[in-house]
Amino acid sequence: MTQISAQGVSRVIPKVIVGETLVPLAPQIAKHAARRPDKACITDETTTLSWGAFGNLVARVAGRLQGLGVGPGSMVASLAENSAAHLALYLGVVHAGACMVPLPFSATAEALIKMRRDCAASLLFTSVSYRDTADRLCAGTVIDLADLEAWVGDAAPVPPVEVAEDDLFDMIYSSGTTGTPKGIVHDHRFRMRQFSRTSAYKLEEDGVLMMSTPLYSNTTLVAVLGCLARGASLVSMARFDTLRFLDLSETYCATHAMLVPVQFMRLMGEPRFDDFDLSAYICKMSTSAPLPGLLIAQVMKRWPGNIVEFYGMTEGGPSTVLDCAAFPEKWDTVGQPSPGVDMRVIDEAGSELPHGSYGEIVGQSGAMMPGYHNNPDKTRDATWVSPDGGHFIRTGDMGRFDDEGFLHLLDRKKDMIISGGFNIYAADLEAVLRQHPEVADVAVIAVPSSDWGETPLGLVVTRSADCDTEAIREWANAQLGKTQRLSAVERRNDLPRSEIGKILKRELRAPYWPGTEK
Fold first, then answer.
1. Does domain 417-512 have CATH number 3.30.780.10?
2. Phi-psi category of 146—alpha, beta or left, where left has phi over 0 and alpha has psi -120 to 50?
3. Percentage of the chain surpassing pLDDT 90?
């Protein structure tokens, strides 16, 4: 098995925080399994595992892995949709002291081959849906998750391996649309410090969390691992579907859900939404992209319970929280920095900007990655060092803090439009277009201009096929500044998105910038 470390990376986060108690996840799962063995732990498309059964399977998976020499320093990969077996494998790997690597099934085969080569995992677990792709990744053994019980066989359950806070917990790969995907390493300290976030959304052991985003996404893991740490229950969806989500929420009296903005948008657009009893909900969480204020207003009006929006990075560092019930006047922001988080704004030269200025957001916290796997150069590129020697994660996001400390996000730095020497933030234009009654979804991108270098183009999904896009453009431009005005508005049937709902603007730009990386 491959022994690994975050090569060339100096750990920059504080190893000790006064008053902090860090408890590894594996012993917590064993405790919940022993204390409430008959309570439901996870329900997926085909089965329900009690806490006792889940805890036993996790410990037996760990025993089987240890029999193969898998332990601290080893990596085990998976390529599969959500299921009880997939989650048991994930926690079994952690229980054995090894590092879990859930590969993104949305990536291309070429990118997945690079990821497999980079992590050098000798065991790859897959589902029937992705078996053909898994076989193409080469090297090592491929095991069907559907046969997990048979693979575990008569392996005896083992106690959790005692881990150090610096030991690796999991590794999440970036999308890998260009170049070599980056493996974002998380150690046990990183994950243990995230569990405290559950207090922000009031998830306790009697709660029921809907799991409808992929297990390879940190969006999912922040909620799911916190749920398990609390001893709550999970309802797992292999694929998100609005009616199925609503039906499961009603059937299992779901109290919590972690969703991305496009899921909220599709649920609000579901004609049968109001037919379901969602009264058990306490809190819905949102992350991965800013949740538009107009959408927050719809959800708060029609769906019982609060919304808590999180902003952060898979790499850790910056983190903000918006309690939508407490701050209705701040729905155009992503909230205030979480406790213990230091966030600042810097300019192109890396100099810190005064409060209220627009620039790139950087952040430092107790939960930060030790680095990108095997990539110290990329790790250094992602780090900003303050004048006092503090190490901060660079987000690549542009924004500013208002006088009350709420973060107003604009665009990814690479998505900013520079027209005639003026910086144009697509988010500002999208916010205006989103208010038009015919616009259901929107993205604004830069396209070439002989006069201005580049100019903004609006791409809209409309509620009717025969709407006048020129009229939409004129309506929007009447509300925009002279330098912001849209050169055109084009209709699209849909907008390309990642598995966690982020609009893939690079794909939208590609036809207009052939042969470039714009």
1. no
2. alpha
3. 75
